[in-house]
Write a structure and sequence with these properties.
By secondary structure, the protein is α+β, with helices and mostly antiparallel strands. It has 4 domains: 7-224, P-loop containing nucleotide triphosphate hydrolases (Rossmann fold); 231-342, Elongation Factor Tu (Ef-tu), domain 3 (Beta Barrel); 353-453, Rossmann fold (3-Layer(aba) Sandwich), CATH 3.40.50.10050; 459-568, Translation factors (Elongation Factor Tu (Ef-tu), domain 3). The strands form 6 sheets. Strands 25, 26, 27, 28, 29, 30, 31, 32 and 33 form a 9-stranded antiparallel β-sheet that branches. An 8-stranded mixed β-sheet has the order 2-3-4-1-7-8-10-9, sandwiched between helices. Helix 2 crosses helix 7 (205-219).
Length: 569
């Protein structure tokens, strides 16, 4: 069975060199191959095996790896947005990923988020440790293999690289990953390979391509087999193009697509249309400058192509597509797509958060991560947050919205705020979760404060001898708070029998809401008669109903030590 090129994506923290590295790889490939050999793809760069062999054939031979993959298809759009957009049912369409890490900065928040995505989608990856040319004392040689350029460095520079490398290995270990420098890896199925590179000088780029091609050839070959017939792909971008109208930039990951095929596109509503044109950019001769497109009759996976078709204005990025040649297979493809979308979006009436995302892949990633965080989900939908959704949530006891990479109009935000709805929107899922968790903690604290403010506290109160100011209706006497806190409205008891509610507390002639351990105050007891119900010198305790006791137990950490002691007695 024919095999396709593995699909690669690059992820990592902003400014760690994803774009620079990809530009260098693309430029290196152009320099090593004939201009016509480097077939350009929409939203992707295709690096043929011939170019890979020209760059690192010697190393592959030493490792006894005979390349039979056609090449590497590297998606040009770096970042987790492209990664979550490029998905199929059950996972990402990327066969391999490159996690870009700045050697001087190590793992950063977006790096950790990228690792989370890679784990969620079970995508194997290699770490490209960038910016080695910025190490103190580094002597660069453009395009050189890592082992050679590393050998040219002073001992101090080599030690510095290894020190930073192993610091990052430690950081990866804390993320649950075992990693090692690529030339020291003993088992690529158990260890993440780290390839030191420079996107500026191209040092280490041959090694990176060698590791990627070697892993794909040795471990992923079975996954790369092409199923003949129906083309399967994912829309990376929807955009207008002069003379063609709305077009779809698609990564084709299986089968083939031809001009005139029936094109089915999944989404909220399934779209059925015809492939009017298939386009691919002119061959890339240099990195800069606009390029035209040329029409092609057919494309086979894996490929990045532009599709022109009627009635696709409502289609969104991340939607799955099927290109069907045989009319008898249209119904089957339609069923597949409906199931794929329904698999992600869902509705329920239970209490939980409303999830909104811009793409199917984005929604799927959001669902997985929210579920892993143990947060219940009410609904999961694609598209912007609407007023009607906010209105629908207003009646719920704890309404919350997570909006991932979708616009939230100002009037919708204001309505949510006025309705007491927690609205968390960001282009980074981590940020949504972090803000939500802080909000939950603040809400919990506010709820505790409010609950405890209206709850009687445990207290022991002694009636002071010689300080009975009035015996009854109401009885007024001086007391000392032996332990705990006496609040106005608390009920005092002896041996479990309630004597009276406290209707007033005064200190030095001023009304106060509560008195704490060690305080001496005057209290009013409307239901007690001193000399009959209670005596001078008696010690009374605050009566705590079951609900109050349970609430105090729940928020025990908010109580003082003397209050906790009384609660436990």
């Amino acid at each position: 069975m024919a095999i396709r090129s593995p699909i690669l994506v690059s992820l990592g923290h902003v400014d760690h060199g994803k774009t620079t590295l990809l530009d260098k790889i693309r430029g290196t490939a152009v320099a090593k191959g004939e201009p016509g050999l480097i077939t350009q793809n929409i939203s992707a760069s295709y690096i043929p095996t011939d170019v890979i062999l020209a760059l690192c054939g010697k190393q592959l031979k030493q490792l006894h790896i005979d390349l039979t993959i056609p090449g590497l298809l590297w998606v040009d759009s770096p970042g987790h947005e492209a990664f979550t957009t490029l998905r199929k049912r059950g996972g990402a369409i990327a066969d391999l990923a490159v996690l870009v890490v700045d050697i001087n900065e190590g793992l950063q928040p977006q790096t950790r988020e990228s690792i989370m995505y890679l784990k969620q989608f079970k995508t194997p990856f290699v770490v490209a440790l960038t910016k080695i040319d910025r190490l103190l004392g580094w002597q660069s040689t453009k395009g050189m293999c890592f082992s050679e350029t590393f050998g040219n460095q002073a001992d101090r520079t080599q030690a510095m690289l290894d020190e930073k490398l192993y610091m990052i290995i430690g950081q990866l270990s804390r993320e649950g990953l075992t990693a090692e420098r690529f030339d020291r890896v003993e088992d690529f199925t158990k260890q993440v390979a780290i390839v030191p590179v420079s996107g500026t000088t191209g040092e280490g780029v041959p090694d990176l391509l060698m590791v990627l091609a070697g892993i794909a050839q040795r471990y992923l070959k079975k996954n790369l087999e092409i199923t003949p017939g129906t083309g399967k792909g994912t829309i990376l971008e929807v955009k207008g193009y002069q003379g063609l109208g709305t077009t779809l930039d698609v990564i084709l990951y299986d089968g083939e697509i031809k001009k005139g095929d029936t094109l089915l596109i999944g989404g909220k509503e399934l779209v059925e249309t015809k492939v009017r044109s298939l386009l691919r950019p002119e061959p890339l001769k240099e990195l800069k400058g606009e390029r035209g497109f040329k029409a092609i009759a057919r494309a086979v996976a894996a490929a990045g192509i532009k599709i022109a078709a009627p009635n696709i204005d409502t289609v969104i990025a991340g939607s799955p597509i099927r290109a069907v040649h045989d009319s008898k297979l249209v119904a089957q493809a339609r069923t597949e797509l409906v199931a794929e979308v329904e698999h992600v979006e869902f509705e329920s009436s239970r209490e939980g958060v409303l999830l909104k995302a811009d793409t199917i892949g984005g929604l799927e990633a959001l669902i997985r991560i929210v579920c892993d965080a143990g947060i219940p989900i009410r609904n999961a939908r694609i598209g912007a947050v609407t007023r009607s959704e906010v209105m629908e949530l207003r009646t719920l006891p704890h309404p919350v919205v997570f909006a991932f990479n979708v616009p939230v109009a100002t009037d919708v935000k204001n309505l949510a705020k006025d309705s007491g709805i927690g609205m968390f929107d960001s282009k980074v899922i981590y940020h949504i979760l972090e803000r939500y968790q802080k909000w939950v903690a603040a809400e919990k604290k506010a709820e505790q404060t409010m609950d405890l403010a209206n709850t009687p506290r445990p207290a022991l109160v002694k009636i002071l001898r010689g300080y009975v100011f009035r015996q009854s209706k109401p009885a007024v006497c001086g007391v000392e708070i032996l332990k705990g806190t006496l609040r106005n409205g608390s009920r005092l008891a002896i041996d479990g029998d309630i004597v009276s509610e406290v209707k007033g507390i005064q200190h030095e002639g001023k009304n106060i809401p509560e008195a704490k351990m060690g305080d001496r105050v005057a209290i009013s007891l409307p239901d007690a008669v001193i000399g009959k119900d209670v005596q001078e010198g008696d010690v009374l305790s605050v009566f705590l109903p079951g609900r109050a006791r349970a609430l105090l137990e729940k928020h025990k950490e908010q109580l003082r030590a003397d209050e906790r002691e009384l609660l436990e007695e």
